[in-house]
Amino acid sequence: GVQVPGEVVPVTGRQLPSIRLILNNGPIEVDRSRSNFDRITRSRFVVSSADIGNDYTVICEVADRPKAAAFMEAAFRVGPACGINIGSSGTIIELTSGRAESYINAINNTNSRIVVCIMATDSKDKYDAIKKHCCIQRPIPSQVILKRTLSNPARMLSVVTKIVMQMNAKMGGELWGVHIPMQKVMYVGIDTYHDSGSARSVGGIVASMNNSLTKFYHRTTWQPSRQELISQMDVVMTDLLRMFKEKNTDYPDRILVFRDGVGDGQLLAVKEIEIRSIK
């Protein structure tokens, strides 16, 4: 008994303004029709560069050394052109085996500030093992690349540009910012991670440290298992404010908190415990 109209009903909607990106050489309006950043990634556009230089290591199998060398040469061509400080003389470590353990041993034996791993095959287990090791056992920024990604000479510079941009961001460099109307605001995000196999949960709190929202500071707290509320919020917020003042010589005028992970039944508890602790 349901009848569906044959014509689409027109409605009046809100049209959002164009996004303005803040680059090193001034603001730019994003072209929505193109939906890409090709014309932006030129002419030393990055807001700030991490000091990568030649202090990076490329890890690959012996047969892929030419691709590692080609990557470093391309990185030196595109990086400085974008305003990113990266050289062409990073270290190359050759592996006789493509196992995850070989990559991990090589990572342990390097003193570079960032590692680039070129994998011959698309192995999720190997990728996960490398990333887990670089996040937990040997904290170091890492970039994992598939060999086939570097196999097309016609797209080499375009691909390496995107990789170098990721390396810069992971090491604290600022690629671009967005126009934020309100100034001197500290934006805070809060969530809690629960692992069914662990006796404890982890609370994560991250806060913006500048007006363009390109610098952040974070803290983590241990919680009793399945506890959603952050029990040490007063200590954490004090540390966030201390760091904000250290970076900006003054405290923020406003604090906007984005709280994830709580249901409607926990809102009162958040108000009575977390918000009170923040105040």
TrEMBL record:
InterPro entries: Piwi, RNaseH-like_sf, RNaseH_sf
PROSITE patterns, sorted: PIWI
Start and end residues of each Piwi domain: 114-279
Protein name from the UniProt record: Argonaute family PAZ and PIWI domains-containing protein Piwi2
A Pfam short name: Piwi
Further details from the record: The sequence shown here is derived from an EMBL/GenBank/DDBJ third party annotation (TPA) entry.
Gene Ontology molecular functions: nucleic acid binding
